[in-house]
Design goal:
Blueprint (H helix, E strand, L loop, with lengths): L1 H33 L10 E5 L5 H10 L6 H10 L9 E5 L5 H10 L3 E5 L6 H10 L7 H9 L9 E5 L4 H15 L1 H4 L6 H14 L3 H17 L6 H11 L38 H8 L8 E4 L6 E4 L2 H11 L3
Helix pairs in contact: 1-3, 5-6, 9-10, 9-12, 10-12
């Protein structure tokens, strides 16, 4: 019986080897197929990994957003290559044309460091857009965060380095550190008017760019407040149209109806300062407010073509300059 069993054992081993090899081959082909790009859509989308997100939840979201073909193949490949525990938080631009291996390689690199310049005189909404375009945060994150923190006027304009996919809290901390270093010491020289001077500086920032002109404008606005004269700052109308209205939109042209917008920020309808800053001022504007210059002027306007500011003592003179420089 031993003579008859030996060939049978050989045949069995060959069949087992063949079956095992076939299974491995089928498994490998299945994984390779599952790692292929889903295709079908060429546009990229932003995918965010938050700190603490599990690998399984990341895989599920990738499938839900049609960025991978097979969650099973993606998971197996990630575990076999040791990549499952290496995915890093961040914002990533991913396309359905990427295969699973390419996506994993992107996700293990982590967020990239980007240099972002925030100009003087931007609102929270405008800063939000810049940070979104640079993939530092998701659109609306800063606006939403500001609802509880009242960040308008506090986002110090400068050049920063952020990581894509940053927590909005971390981004705000960097801005506030800039404010505490550069703006707060100036405003602290008159602590009783800290808030009002910040609001006034935001108006000056939006109206004029020259420091000496800013000192004159700050003096004019202070005089108007003392006598109960409306400030009549076009920049506040722009702020309402661009940031506070339900539709949002552009500032110019400003129409007669715009001056009638019902808002506490409308300095044509309400006397005194608006309830808060309309932008984040730079150092120059803040210094201009703290060192405002008294003058005989009550009116000012800026030529949109040259940026030059013209001052007038009377409304008649002011209207003449409006005709000369704004209606020519």
């Amino acid at each position: 019986m031993l003579a008859y069993r030996k060939p049978f054992e050989i045949i069995s081993k060959k069949l087992f080897f063949f079956s095992a090899t076939s299974l491995v081959l089928i498994f490998t082909l299945s994984i390779n197929f599952g790692l292929r790009s889903p295709g079908g859509v060429s546009s990229s989308s932003i995918f965010k990994i938050n700190s603490g997100d599990s690998f399984l939840s990341i895989s599920s979201r990738l499938k839900r957003e049609n960025l991978i073909r097979s969650p099973f193949a993606f998971k197996i490949f990630a575990f076999l290559t040791g990549s499952a525990s290496k995915l890093k938080p961040g914002l990533y631009e991913l396309s359905p044309n990427l295969n699973g291996n390419e996506i994993i390689n992107i996700l293990i690199r982590g967020g990239e460091e980007v240099e972002v310049t925030i100009p003087e005189g931007l609102s929270v909404a405008e800063v939000d857009k810049i940070l979104t375009d640079q993939k530092v945060i998701l659109s609306g994150d800063l606006i939403e965060f500001s609802k509880d923190r009242a960040l308008e006027g506090w986002l110090f304009p400068s050049t920063y380095k952020f990581f894509t996919g940053s927590k909005v809290e971390d981004v705000v901390d960097i801005f506030l550190e800039g404010f505490d270093t550069n703006i707060k010491p100036i405003l602290d020289s008159n602590p009783e008017k800290f808030e009002s001077n910040l609001v006034l500086a935001s108006l000056v920032q939006e109206e004029v760019s020259d420091f000496e002109d800013g000192r004159l404008v700050a003096g004019i606005l202070e005089k108007r407040i003392k006598v109960g004269m409306p400030l009549q700052i076009d920049a506040t109308i722009c702020y309402i149209k661009k940031n506070l209205s339900k539709e949002g939109g552009v500032c110019y042209p400003i129409t007669k109806l715009d001056f009638k917008i019902d808002s506490p920020y409308n300095t044509y309808q309400h006397r005194g300062l608006p309830p808060g800053p309309i932008a984040s001022p730079g150092v120059s504007a803040v210094r201009a407010v703290l060192d405002k210059n008294s003058s005989p002027y009550w009116f000012f306007l800026s030529d949109p073509k040259t940026g030059k500011t013209y001052f007038s003592e009377t409304l008649e003179e002011h209207n003449e300059k409006i005709f000369l420089y704004l209606k020519k």
